[in-house]
Specification:
149 residues; alpha+beta; 2 domains; six-stranded antiparallel β-sheet; three-stranded antiparallel β-sheet
């Protein structure tokens, strides 16, 4: 993750950079910064959309890849509101992790008829996904069968 300071609005911001694990990939922060010198990264400030910033820090996190498949997990929070006697789904929200989905569902629950948090794992390229795994339920929500349909 790049920690940046926007030169236009003067706000701190971050940008995630994914570097695949391969021969020649940087293994330290200094190697990563050297790579940035050779291959600049496009930047757009999240606050003002400026294209110019100073690099103030780098955080590296190594991810261990257990599989070569293209499977990914999506974490979703779905809110339901009442329209008469019917439960109507609002726009789903994507969460960063299972824990984040549970916390977000719990936070949204008081203002809605019901909220669920679930995950789906699969391959976005092929559209093959496993059945949803329900992480949390609050209030009045459709049955598992209705949700899986």
């Amino acid at each position: 993750m790049l920690h940046l300071h926007c030169l236009n609005c003067q706000r701190p911001t971050t940008q995630n950079i994914f570097v695949p694990v391969a021969e020649g990939s940087p293994t330290s922060v200094s190697e990563f910064v050297e790579m940035l010198d050779r291959r600049p990264v496009r930047f757009s400030c999240k606050h003002c959309e400026s294209l110019i910033a100073n690099l103030v820090g780098v955080t590296m996190q190594k991810e261990i890849v257990m599989s070569t498949s293209a499977e990914v997990s999506f974490y979703v929070v779905q809110v339901f509101d009442r329209q008469g006697r019917r439960l109507v789904a609002a726009q789903p929200r994507q969460a960063k992790s299972a824990e984040h989905a549970k916390l977000l569902a719990e936070r949204l629950a008081p203002g809605h008829a019901g909220v669920i948090a679930f995950s789906r794992t699969g391959d976005p390229d092929t559209g093959d996904f496993d059945d949803p795994v329900f992480l949390a339920r609050f209030g009045d929500v459709p049955s598992d069968e209705e949700l899986a349909a």
